[in-house]
Design brief:
Elements: E1 6-12, E2 25-27, E3 34-36, E4 45-53, E5 59-61, E6 65-67, E7 78-84, E8 89-93, E9 98-101, E10 103-107, E11 111-116, E12 125-127, E13 133-136, E14 145-153, E15 156-174, E16 179-182, E17 187-190, E18 192-196, E19 200-205, E20 208-209, E21 216-219, E22 222-225, E23 234-242, E24 245-256, E25 258-261, E26 286-288, E27 296-297, E28 300-301
Parallel strand pairs: 8-15, 16-24
Antiparallel strand pairs: 1-4, 2-3, 4-5, 4-6, 7-10, 9-13, 11-14, 12-13, 14-15, 15-18, 17-22, 19-20, 19-23, 21-22, 23-24, 25-26, 27-28
Main location: membrane
Subunit structure: Interacts with PTPRG.
Protein name: Ig-like domain-containing protein
Length: about 300
């Protein structure tokens, strides 16, 4: 994959003449180097490398490099020698654009071809006009595999091969939300992230590793706290991590403890009913933990019966 901030081009003799890439000339966007297979008289001249920062659009120029022909003989024919090759293992992020470079020197000028071992190319694969760059856009798991470049001329051929390995940084599938739990009740938080390799999940409380005990258990990203008490209140963080990245999500646990309070939902002072009809008298005090209820009629405790 290329450094997305830098773009390399080469000027031939003077602006605005740029080196045009073809099957003989190749500019690596990995190193910035210019490669010429089978130098010709027309290649003689001065070369300047132009480097552009594609974020700021600023450009810098290298000092001129002269190219002169040697007079002590002519290079004979020889088999391709691959000078630009991609690594044996390339880690490619989900959704990224992958560029594999391959270029060879040789006489006659080698032709470059590509193949995917054991499978055909997907529709997303593009090869540039010089065949020196294979591009895969929106890289996904199914694009993983072994890719091979072959440089060939009448004197022989050589190959370069590398493995494209898919990876994905952790990404939240299930997030956390703040919890308000009455004292004595239970809490369950589920924290889940996707990624390749599969991320591990750990829990923190107020920035420190969560202490596991009989009442507090963690399993596969799930946090369970039984019979919460006031000491459980705090800010909790779930951490998902694989070798390509780490992400955090936070939520607050508030443990509520209060005596029964009828101020927000008082009982009605009178309820008119007809003889023989049904009546429901609601009792909904605010209380943490949940209140137990007793009913009285006058000064006597009301007992349940068939009515």
């Amino acid at each position: 994959m290329y450094d997305i901030e830098l773009k390399y081009t080469w000027i031939f003799n003077q602006l605005p003449t740029f080196v045009e890439q073809d099957n003989r000339r190749f500019v690596s966007q990995k190193t910035g180097n210019l490669y010429i297979s089978k130098v010709e008289v027309s290649d003689v001249g001065s070369y300047i490398c132009e480097i552009e920062n594609t974020v700021t659009n600023k450009k810098v120029l290298s000092p001129p490099t002269p190219l002169v022909l040697r007079t002590d003989g002519v290079m004979g024919e020889y088999e391709p020698k691959i000078e630009v090759r991609f690594p044996e293992t390339v880690f490619a992020a989900k959704g990224s654009t992958v560029n594999l470079e391959c270029f060879a020197l040789g006489n006659p000028v080698p032709t470059i071809s590509w193949r995917r071992i054991g499978s055909s190319f997907s529709d997303k694969v593009k090869v540039n006009k010089t065949d020196g760059v294979l591009e895969i856009t929106n890289f996904q798991q199914k694009d993983s595999g072994t890719y091979e470049c072959t440089a060939e001329n009448s004197r022989g051929k050589n190959t370069a091969r590398g493995q494209l390995v898919f990876y994905a940084r952790p990404n939240w599938i299930r997030n956390l939300t703040d919890a308000y739990v009455p004292i004595g009740e239970s809490l369950q938080w589920i924290c889940k992230a996707s990624g390749e390799p599969k991320p591990s999940h750990t829990w923190l409380k107020n920035g420190e590793p969560l202490i596991i005990e009989e009442r507090i258990q963690v399993e596969k990203g799930m946090l369970n706290i039984r019979a919460v008490n006031l000491s459980d209140s705090g800010m909790y963080q779930c951490v998902a991590e694989n070798k390509h990245g780490i992400i955090y999500v936070s939520a607050e646990l508030r443990v509520m403890a209060s005596a029964p309070d009828f101020s927000t939902s008082p009982l009605k002072k009178s309820i008119p009913v007809r003889i023989g009809s049904e009546v429901i008298i609601q009792c909904k005090p605010k209380a943490s933990p949940r209140a137990t209820f007793t009913w009285m009629k006058g000064n006597e405790i009301l007992q349940e019966n068939e009515r």
